[in-house]
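> run fold DUF4336 domain-containing protein
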Amino acid sequence: MTSKLVPFDPAKVMVIRDVVPKTITTFSMPFARFGKFKVGGRGTIVRLQSGALAVFSPTALTDEVKQKVAEMGQVKYIAALDIEHHIYLGPWSAAYPTAQVIGPEGLPEKRAAQKNEDVPFAHVFTKANPLTAIDPEFDSEFSYEYVYAHKNKEIVFLHRPTKTVIQADLIFNYPATEQYSKTGISATSGILTKIFGALTNTTGNGQRRAIWYGISSGDRTGFSNAVKNIYKWDFDRIIGCHGDVIETNGKGIFKHVMEWHLAEQSNAS
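> ok
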């Protein structure tokens, strides 16, 4: 499965960047959905004040990545941000076996059905039993919201000290310029990429419509309630898996994309 979705030699095209020196590092690489849409892929590592590392949507565990991890600290948490971003969960869990693995409901079963590596999940987010604590060390710096109404079962994290939201598929920020910067290929080339880009940039109304009429249509109220909880957070930066990092004004961009959900009246009692 992996060979069909990611570059043959990820070390040659991966961009390792310190977004916040000594605290947040991203690992960006090309990724084309269905081999057609250039959306890019990204993993993120946050170094807690204790020195522990939290890894979100891990990417290929190359020698360069291992070296960077060793320089940063000890991996104690590995999070799959939804049921789609788990390709490298097995290698990371095997390399750092004491790390607590975090993921959404349905992912353990999906991995078992696909005969992926056996990964011991320490924390699973579910709609029926909302997860309110990981452990004191992690919770001292992170807030989180489980967007169960998203078709991919999104878990969204806020690193409070840096005002950074870390997420997978809740918001895209096309084009994937950084993620394709070492490939020699334009991140915007191809008619399908251009069409997809119109639905995943953060400046127009395309993404807002796609989320409203598509992604959230199965449970719009549940989706809207989660979006409203996220909007209450104090954040400026948004690191997503697809497209470029939103370095600043993240809350304003979030409001623009999610405007209809933020305005929706809740049907909850």
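The first helix runs from residue 2 to 5.
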